[in-house]
Amino acid sequence: MADNWESGIREASGDYIILLSDKIILKKDALQFLYEKIGEQGQPDCVIWSIDAYYELEGQYFSHASGAKWSWKDSKALITEVFNSELDSPHVPCHGNSAVSKRVVDKIRKKNGRLCLPVNPDYMMAFQILLSTKKVLRLGQSLTVLRYPKIGDGYGNGTSFMLGTGQSQEFLRQNASIIKTREESTIIPMDGMVFCLSYVLDDLYTILRLYDVDPEYYLSIEKRRINYLYFCYLELMHRLYMGADIKEELKIWKKLLSEEKPQTRSEILRLLKTKRRKIAYIYCIRFIRKIPIINFLIRKVGDRLFRNNVVHIKSIDELLNLHLLHPNF
């Protein structure tokens, strides 16, 4: 994948580059809107935006647009946000949610030869961009939609890994030598790379080493370890919500927690208590998913309590009709 992306970028002839995979839906007039914003703000090094999400299993569409006009974000602060955030929470310049200027790409290539590096070219690209810029422009609007498939689809490395499909196992086999090298050098416990967050953080540590930057510059090791286990648990809850079996991963998480210092364990458990209603809701949804009427009622209550940005739709076609032509875009 990294080679494919790099090949495509090398063929690009415009002033800005946007990477779109087949699971990303570009909204109507998004490119025109982006072109105008780039011109208004003096050709920024990089522009980022939120991605809306469509969960096919539940028929739910979530709008992640903030409603704000735009803002400048410090690149260092965005890297710190990765250490302080859930897997998909930080808005770093990945594929489908960013446009990066050709001058930044050329700067990165001059240093390392390429923008996209294995195993995960998405985050490897993102962290190189942030280390090569001082600030990025964040839009309040969402220009794209990311599709999360049904559990049997095995659609995309990231999603299929989270769902524990055969495709993810093949991905691990193909990249075994790279993963082994990474595991030997990272300070974050990998334990067979069962957490997607491990990959993201490992990519970040790899790029920081490449650019000779100390992670302590962003966040202390103590705080990073607390955040790691806290957000790995929330990742498991997200997997559970998507329909995955997390029994083995949960055992590994509990083992890692038991090996931490008492004060670290206490802080992680304290943080998880603040999410207890949401966690209970996810377990409840998983338990009653096969009972349609109860499932429907619980979801209505849960969506009202936890998510006020939900639209229920029945198909991809309805998604395209509703959101590529969305009147509020």
Percent helix, as a range, is 40-55%
N/C terminus separation: 31 Å
Individual helix count: 15
Task: Tell me the Rg in angstroms.
Answer: 20 Å
What's the SSE pattern? HEEHEEEHEHHEHHHHHHHHHEH
Structural class: alpha+beta
Low-confidence stretches: 185-192, 323-329
Number-wise, the strands total 8
| Tertiary shape | globular
Q: Could you walk me through the main structural features you see in this protein, from its secondary elements to its overall organization?
A:
By secondary structure, the chain is α+β, with helices and mostly antiparallel strands. It has a domain at 221-310. The chain is 53% helix and 13% strand. It is built from 15 helices and eight strands. Strand 3 and strand 4 form a beta hairpin. Helix 10 (221-242) runs antiparallel to helix 11 and helix 10 (221-242) crosses helix 12. The two termini are 31 Å apart. Mean pLDDT is 79; it is low at 185-192 and 323-329.
Q: What are the SSEs and their pairings?
A:
Elements: H1 2-11, E1 16-17, E2 24-26, H2 30-40, E3 46-55, E4 60-62, E5 70-74, H3 75-83, E6 98-101, H4 102-112, H5 121-131, E7 135-148, H6 157-163, H7 166-174, H8 176-185, H9 196-210, H10 221-242, H11 247-258, H12 262-273, H13 276-288, H14 292-306, E8 310-312, H15 316-323
Parallel strand pairs: 3-7
Antiparallel strand pairs: 1-6, 2-7, 3-4, 3-6, 4-8, 5-7
Helix pairs in contact: 5-9, 6-7, 10-11, 10-12, 10-13, 13-14
